[in-house]
Task: inverse folding
């Protein structure tokens, strides 16, 4: 199993979720994060003083998938999250050693 | 004889001016600081209001508004001993109890204005000590000089609702406290933006409404004078807001909400001394000027002087109050203005004297007070507490516990 | 002669009606939008208040409340030139300065109500331009027709505190602006829920209190008429709230807070034209009706017409104001109502004429104004700015900086 | 004859007391609960206000303030049938419409105070039922006994603005409801801290300002009595705040903001019965005492009795109201106090009788009412809904939707 | 070393923490997340308009443990988090290559 | 590639970011988390009742780096985050199997 960790633009969440459910991936976990990268932050000016906001709001999606679904999932997610603008984000893949559904105790692919 | 209409209005105005401190100013200032210091700012406002109320009862009112010596009132009204249930304040048609309460709300908000200078790094004990001493050593004497029959009153100074007594004293003192206290350790480059601009706007809105009580209440009656003060106050605020917005729009490309409401406060502070003496055209003019001048005032303190007067008390209040106090004689010439009892330039000299003397006295006394606080309770929290935030460090609380669970 | 009690009350009422815009309406609307647009809504309310105040000073008051022609006032009071320090408003015992300030707060809140129609997608420049033109082309003439001695006043129209002048004008115009502007791009299915229902409730609460000034202040005196208006206002609000809650409870299984306070506003808008003319029983009856009718009005606009009048200005204000204006003649029959100067059905025809004429004029003029804005400053922000949110896109700010650090 | 100044003040005071419930008390209580229950608390306050307003119209006012029997009023004013447009309330110079509205705001806030006892676990239907029955079975009779010419009035009980009628009734009833309802399932060790102390402070500030209307409005006129009540109210609040802060500072090492504003409310509740009868020195004294006594009262309920009176209604309101009511006779001896019409100890006995009788009646009737609610609509939500939070469980809403997107 | 990533119901946090400390695991990091899965979201109705809330508040626990403690930790966490209702969440296990305590520079199991 | 997951004191964020950009690492993602560990929480007292706040605000930094930059990054981050007080936090390292830049579809080190 693999854990896909995707950093995306907040407003692409619905598109990403729909795309994933479209290919039968029905579980995911979302975290509000702030990112720093090539897309620079912005400046806010209050009463003539400049405040540098370096970190930009992003969402992190974590999706555990069976090995067989990995490529499909990455592909789908990448397409759904893309706007073509700088700051679209990243998709990272980690190896997932175990997975367990708390409610039932199921493990492995069946837990996803 | 007590007039019930006048009394009705001044009781209401008293409520409005209390509202200006609690919660209006608290929200205005609280939204401008970081989330980790929000409660401390609210606590400052709340505690200053309480300390100054009790001091006003003990001796403040007596020393400001009893007797007729040049420098300070007398002790006839310590513990409000001469205030009777039916007693009328001389020169008005309202009960003395109402008059002293109305004045008390001014004595509360003036030291509370200074809070903006020292937020995010001061010890809570120092807030209490400085505010208490400041009330007695700066506010009370100056109020006596200008409104209590003191030497500036004798010279004919005009200060309708406190451009000098409130805004110049607070603004100058704020700078002095900030300078002695030193900058927040992140100043100027690592300072975080206002954590809740919406809160700043709510505070400003309530300040605006409350200011009707402040300025129109200073008529001490419900009639044409109060009405004109109301009108002038509102127009100055509205105009200054638009001017500040225009400046930001031109200069930074976007008009900000925090900027707009800062303009409002600038317009309100500026019209305060003039409100009961001028008509609507003058109010619009002064409002427009105050937008420009206070904008520059803020930049001056922040960029040129590099003093961390964190929430711009001098730039907005001090500069605005002085501006209105100095221009007042000229502004009476426009429609709806009162007739001056002397020549304009003569009146201007009196106004300048009053602004200058008040500024000097405020600076000297505040420096002394701050040094006393430094030597006794201490001024600043340590670096770690500043990093953690005063909410937890000084009050053991957290402003926001929104987390699920 | 000036009566100090009347003056005290109308100054207070002026403060209360200003409070309705700043911050009450701002909070009510601000809580209903998404977090990324909160500051823009507050900025709209604030800026509209300032623009309209200055326009009122320049010419609005004169064109609405001077002279006695059928269609528009005259220019005698441009720049408030004829307002003197001691002058009394004819037909009242209050200073003209107070009268014009009280009226100014109505001229401020009416265009501010329309904000609810165009939030989350409009350009800030368009807000300013539309509001300013609307004040002059819609509000000022209609106020003159109904309250300033114009053609509807001559025909005997009854509109105590602005069911027609305020709520019908704003409601109809809101629909027109929303229709021309177009829907938010997520409308109707991707719209996010109100980001801060607590803020909506605080806004509604302050609106309720402020409405005492709006309706009971419209008596322009402090006596039995004001008292009866106060009573009617309160009862209609309370009843409409309960009715709205009951409908939601039955229909959706749960009574929501946002629904309850929407009912309150419906009840308040509906009683506005009738408040000074009817007694308590009529107020309860009208309140109950308004809960039902405005609930349906909201659904009608949203589901049937599919216009993105985002915060339901037509459904709540327009429908409510019209309802109260039309039922008013019948409601005077119940205990505590005033005697009509003509037959009920005759009065009803006058009311219907006034509502109809006002609605048509509002629609036509607003369409024109919106087209002008579209052709000059432009109406909508681009899609990207709409996605980012107006707070940063238009004002360069963020509503909430709560993050640790 | 109607006096316009008195009327102006009492209309204003009516607005201020409504403000105390909506939104002041709602914010004060709302900030103290968990984020998942904030909307439910606001909904409780809002709904209780509406239900009690309508009941007041239907029969509450009549049963409390018509006729002169010992136990209950009569039915002459059902549906406010005898209230006329020009009618004056006997013994005052204000319209009866204004008098009954002023009293209505008291009838609204008193049951709303009890909300603090049962938050975070009660069914919404039970809130409505209990509040409605409580208004009719506890508030209305006690108001009649003390203020409506009933048996305690005949005996000469002194309760200026509701130490007994408002605070003792609400405090005792709160304890009874809380005891019957049972603790929140996390009580006492897993309870989460107040989710928004800033909101508590804003609520307390508005309560303070509103209390000017509550106490000084109870003069029913705008003159020296109102002025003295205003002064006493303010000084008690300020002193109690400082005392509570001092206790916390000494005992816990840090003075908290929530503690400070709790002290304020204690000071305000305590001065309520005495406010119009005593002078400033007495107010400071009573304020200081209330800070200590209510602090202990809170600990007593929480630690010793282990009743989950969640927001300390008994400890703060009940104890404070009783304290002021009992000490009142002695406090009139200090400067500015009124002359008693009988001996001090005699008056004390009357006060003690009134406090005792009211407490017993409140306890018995509230127990009955709560049992009725339990047997009909049910009292508590189930454990799962309590865990999810009442906002979603009972109202289908979420308090905060701040997330990006 | 392993990194246990558990998605749980928010109100199970205290139980989970106590259970873990009960077996001597004294460190963990918690994040507020929102989850999407079989447990469907809910609908909120405001003024007659329906708003679909797809994502449900959850908490994510991250617990780094020595290999030897893994089974025990999973077992304990699973039990503490279980309510038996749909939406109880998941436990994922990732391999942890290194761990370092910032304050002391300790690495490996000693850093946990 | 490796994924560095660092739990740090919130006020060390700026220092950490600057240190990382100083060595040419220009991307990272930050999450607000709450930590439990040796540094115990605190107690808040409201109206005489004690509330135990067990979890302390921390920030989690996630930095994906090429294998060759790992040691340098850990070293730099550790130094920047250190205050020497208990609660300074942890640095964890996970193996990163894949990385993809959403905007361009680049993969591997080039995506970072
Ligand atoms: N090396 C990295 N490790 C972890 N997260 C990163 C890294 N680089 C970028 N990110 C995340 O990806 C987001 C987008 O990256 P950025 O460089 O701004 O644009 P792009 O995705 O177009 O290359 C950043 O805001 C950050 O959250
Ligand atoms: N494939 C997945 N990847 C990541 N997180 C998941 C995945 N599936 C479920 N989750 C998380 O687990 C939570 C519970 O899952 P859900 O399917 O609703 O119920 P259950 O845990 O009972 O199977 C979700 O809200 C989500 O946060
Ligand atoms: N075993 C662990 N797994 C995950 N996070 C941990 C673990 N132990 C500690 N942490 C995180 O590191 C933070 C600091 O740890 P702590 O034990 O308090 O101090 P120190 O870092 O000085 O050892 C904790 O607040 C928590 O966020």
Result:
């Amino acid at each position: 199993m693999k854990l896909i960790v995707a950093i995306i633009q907040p407003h692409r969440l619905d598109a990403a979720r729909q795309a994933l459910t479209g290919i039968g991936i029905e579980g995911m976990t979302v975290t509000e994060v702030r990112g720093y990268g090539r897309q620079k932050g912005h400046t806010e000016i209050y009463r003539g003083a400049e405040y540098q906001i370096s970190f930009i709001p992003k969402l992190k999606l974590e999706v555990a998938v069976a090995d067989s679904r990995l490529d499909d999932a990455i592909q789908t997610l990448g397409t759904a999250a893309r706007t073509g603008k700088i700051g679209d984000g990243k998709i990272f893949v980690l190896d997932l050693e175990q997975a367990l559904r708390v409610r039932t105790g199921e493990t492995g692919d069946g837990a996803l | 004889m007590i007039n019930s209409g006048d009394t009705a209005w001044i009781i209401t105005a008293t409520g409005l001016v209390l509202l200006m401190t609690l919660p209006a100013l608290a929200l205005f200032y609280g939204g401008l600081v970081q989330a980790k210091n929000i409660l401390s700012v609210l606590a400052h406002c709340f505690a200053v209001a309480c300390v100054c109320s009790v001091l006003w009862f003990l001796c403040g009112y007596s020393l400001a508004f009893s007797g007729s010596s040049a420098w300070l009132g007398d002790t006839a009204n310590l513990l409000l001993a001469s205030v009777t249930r039916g007693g009328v304040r001389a020169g008005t048609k309202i009960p003395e109890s109402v008059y002293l309460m109305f004045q008390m709300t001014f004595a509360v908000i003036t030291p509370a204005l200074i809070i903006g200078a020292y937020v995010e790094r001061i010890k809570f004990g120092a807030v209490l000590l400085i505010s208490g001493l400041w009330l007695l050593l700066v506010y009370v004497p100056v109020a006596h000089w200008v409104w209590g029959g003191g030497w500036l009153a004798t010279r004919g100074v005009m200060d309708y609702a406190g451009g000098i007594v409130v805004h110049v004293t607070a603004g100058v003192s704020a700078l002095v406290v900030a300078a002695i206290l030193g900058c927040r350790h992140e100043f100027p480059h690592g300072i975080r933006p206002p954590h809740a601009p919406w809160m700043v706007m709510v505070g400003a809105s309530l300040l605006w409404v409350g200011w009707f009580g402040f300025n129109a209440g200073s008529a001490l009656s419900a009639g044409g004078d109060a009405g004109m003060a109301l009108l002038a106050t509102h127009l100055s605020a509205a105009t200054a807001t638009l001017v500040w917005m225009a400046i930001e729009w031109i200069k930074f490309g976007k008009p900000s909400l925090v900027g707009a409401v800062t303009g409002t406060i600038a317009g309100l502070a500026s019209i305060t001394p003039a409100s009961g003496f001028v008509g609507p055209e003058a109010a619009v003019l002064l409002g427009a000027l105050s937008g420009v001048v206070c904008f520059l005032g803020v930049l001056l303190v922040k960029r040129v002087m590099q003093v961390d007067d964190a929430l711009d008390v001098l730039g907005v209040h001090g500069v605005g109050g002085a501006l209105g106090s100095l221009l007042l004689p000229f502004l009476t010439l426009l429609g709806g203005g009162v007739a001056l009892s002397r020549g304009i330039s003569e009146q201007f000299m009196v106004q300048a004297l009053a602004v200058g003397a008040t500024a000097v006295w405020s600076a000297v006394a505040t420096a002394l007070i701050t040094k006393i606080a430094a030597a006794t309770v201490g001024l600043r929290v340590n670096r770690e507490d500043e990093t953690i935030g005063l909410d937890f460090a000084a009050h053991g609380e957290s402003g926001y516990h929104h987390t699920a669970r």
